[in-house]
Amino acid sequence: MIDLNNNFKKKVFGVTLAIMAIAFVVSTGSKVLAQTASDSTEVTAPVAAVEVESGHGLNRVIKGTEKWGEEHNIDPLKFVQNIGKSTGIYQILNQKREAPKAEFKAPVEEAKEIDWGTAPGWQSLIMIAVGFLIVYLAVGKGFEPLLLIPIGFGTILVNIVGAKMGDLPDGMLAIIYHAGVGNEFFPMLIFMGIGAMTDFGPLIANPKTAILGGAAQFGVFFTLFGVAVMNLFGLNYNIMQACAIGIIGGADGPTSIYVSGKLAPELMGVIAVAAYSYMALVPMIQPPIMKLLTSKKERLIKMPNPRAVPKMEKVLFPLMLLILTILLLPPAAPLIGMLAFGNFVKESGAAQRLSKTMENELMNIVSIVLSLGVGSQMTPEKIIKGESVGIIVLGLIAFAVATAGGLCMAKVMNLFLPKGKKINPLIGSAGVSAVPMAARVANKVGQSEDPSNFLLMNAMGPNVSGVIGTAMAAGVFIATYGGLR
Three-class SS string for the chain? Predict the structure, then answer.
């Protein structure tokens, strides 16, 4: 027992001596450095020169020298204070979060700078909580994890006060957003990948399902009236902004980004967040609407599987689609063209390596960075605003009306179809462009009524036609209002 106490005393004494030695060295070193700094009449600080190409809002050149005086003395107390002020807790409670300024180039106008203002630091905690909720929905509930996991983490990371991951010019999330999300680059690549992944066979086999995809676009155009109502409450959106918001109803993220870039670049961030959020939440939003507007008898309707489509028809379909777009609606050609390109490479079978790259590696990489970029826009100064809330509400209304439009059109078509050719109205909800999520949801709801009722292949017809329909609606908006900017 005595030996143990002696050993303990020796250890305490040794640790005490070590701490005193460290404190002596730090104190002595601080005094020496402070004396050196105060004795220096002028010290030339390192000169940082930053030259940035115009058009990014970052033009600055720092020149000259800086005189070091007493304000640069080494102060241990100030050092500790600075450490405290750099913690996340202090910044959340005491600082305002300033939104990074972004610039967009409209087709006609010069670059327009958007300043979203500031938000209290504590609001970032709300957005971080939203980010964790998104991740939970993806992992815990299985709601489209390929989209929601990177969107959720992008939301969390960009809202860490002091991390500056969303700030130009060096923030990773800002670089991702401005490199490909804030323009048509990533959306075009996504459409190419969708084309390589899509089988248009169900649509070719049953062309009348294209009507359901067209009916779902009613939600896109209905939003224009919703914007007029919102304007009565002081949210003054113009017609171009209304068109960009309306595309959210098609549940098509890439198309929403593309249209907002052409017509309302100042709203691109919020529109992208809303569109991708509704795409991912299709399994949550659509089923209540589907059950509300259909009877149990209608949900039990069985449909035979579509016929097998010959390869030649599949190869010719993207070419004919592209030719019709070129002749009738050129503004939609970028989206339809990339969709047709990816699908033709797949169906022709002449370049399987390219096809596999498009639908696998390239699609996965672009989906990750695009979703992170979308999440980076979910900041309090952008989301917790009246205008942004209005966009999110209008987008939800547009999506609900689009779902209802496809369902109701299927019910109308059944009035004219013979008994053995009836359409299960559930596949009409797949007329939105969330491929293949909406088709899977229609199949799942149908099987909840009858496990032997497989609607997936039939639902893919209106689903892929919805992709084409939303792209066409985008072309109409751009052709009509694109020249106003």
Answer: CHHHHHHHHHHHHHHHHHHHHHHHHHHHHHHHHHHHHHHCCCCCCCCCCCCCCCCCCCCCCCCCCCCCCHHHCCCHHHHHHHHHHCCHHHHHHHCEEECCCEEECCCCCCCEEECCCEEECCHHHHHHHHHHHHHHHHHCCCCCHHHHHHHHHHHHHHCCCCCCCCCCCCCHHHHHHHHHHCCCHHHHHHHHHHHHHCCCHHHHHCHHHHHHHHHCCHHHHHHHHHHHHHHHCCCCCCHHHHHHHHHHHHCCHHHHHHHHHHHCHHHHHHHHHHHHHHHHCHHHHHHHHHHHHCCHHHHCCCCCCCCCCCHHHHHHHHHHHHHHHHHHCHHHHHHHHHHHHHHHHHHHCCCHHHHHHHHHHHHHHHHHHHHHHHHCCCCHHHHCCHHHHHHHHHHHHHHHHHHHHHHHHHHHHHCCCCHHHCCCHHHHHHHCCCCCHHHHHHHHHHHHHCCCCCCHHHHHHHHHHHHHHHHHHHHHHHHHHHHHC
